[in-house]
């Protein structure tokens, strides 16, 4: 399996996959110039798109190893164009309701409640909670420890900061940034950045 990116989040993703697929071979892809050729001295970092394409022919599964929604989408598009198959990461310690739906990543200790709908490629980070009937768009990043309460609606390409709280029924547009620790009590229009308690 190839993990996109070769930074800190990619290392956390690797740790989770090793617990799930202990015998799997892992490689990374990072198109930034310079940097590691081998991560942790043992995992190859592919930097060339032609090499990536050849690797995906051999093993098409890939995992998103970056948090930023725009970069997650960029890698998703590149890998699928080259024949890759996105493999959502569901940590062994996450708790996902049987009635929740979506193709997303859920990290250690995360929770997704009943009838929640999570968009393609979204990330529910370590210890984050998404409660009943919440709806998240595509490529949303929910930071560690964030709390999204019932019936919340969040658009696509949003960044919900670590430890933030979105109160029940709040609607958030597309491409919204919610600061770490913020408490969102009312509607947030697309393209805005909000922070503080209450978030403004």
* Overall mean pLDDT: 95
- Approximate strand percentage: 25-35%
**Strands in their spatial order, largest beta sheet:** 3-4-2-1-5-6
SS-derived structural category: alpha/beta
* Total domain count: 2
Describe the largest sheet: 6 strands, mixed
CATH class of the largest domain: Mainly Beta
CATH-assigned homologous superfamily of the largest domain? Hexapeptide repeat proteins
Number of helices: 3
The helix content, as a percent range, equals 10-25%
Distance between the termini: 42 Å
Spatial extent as radius of gyration: 17 Å
Write down the CATH topology of the largest domain. Answer: UDP N-Acetylglucosamine Acyltransferase, domain 1
Number of strands: 22
**Corresponding CATH architecture of the largest domain:** 3 Solenoid
What does this molecule look like?
The protein is of the alpha/beta class and 200 residues long. The chain folds into 2 domains: 2-86, Rossmann fold, CATH 3.40.50.20; 89-189, Hexapeptide repeat proteins (UDP N-Acetylglucosamine Acyltransferase, domain 1, 3 Solenoid), CATH 2.160.10.10. It is built from 3 helices and 22 strands.
Question: What keyword list fits this structure?
Answer:
200 residues; alpha/beta; Rossmann fold; UDP N-Acetylglucosamine Acyltransferase, domain 1; 2 domains; six-stranded mixed beta sheet; six-stranded parallel beta sheet
């Amino acid at each position: 399996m190839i993990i996109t990116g070769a930074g800190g989040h990619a290392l956390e993703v690797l740790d989770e996959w090793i617990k799930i697929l202990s015998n799997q071979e892992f490689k990374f892809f990072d198109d930034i110039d310079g940097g590691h050729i081998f991560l942790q001295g043992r995992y190859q970092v592919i930097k060339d798109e032609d090499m990536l394409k050849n690797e995906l022919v051999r093993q098409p599964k890939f995992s998103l190893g970056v948090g930023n929604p725009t970069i997650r989408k960029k890698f998703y598009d590149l890998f699928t164009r080259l024949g890759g198959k996105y493999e959502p990461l569901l940590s062994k310690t996450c708790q996902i309701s049987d009635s929740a739906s979506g193709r997303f990543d859920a990290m250690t200790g995360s929770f997704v409640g009943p009838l929640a709908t999570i968009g393609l490629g979204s990330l529910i980070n370590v210890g984050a909670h998404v409660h009943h009937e919440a709806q998240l768009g595509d490529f949303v990043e929910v930071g560690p420890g964030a709390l999204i309460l019932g019936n919340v609606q969040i658009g696509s390409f949003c960044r919900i900061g670590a430890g933030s709280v979105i109160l029940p029924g709040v609607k958030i547009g597309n491409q919204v940034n919610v600061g770490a620790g913020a408490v969102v009590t009312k509607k947030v229009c697309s393209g805005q950045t909000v922070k503080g308690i209450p978030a403004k």
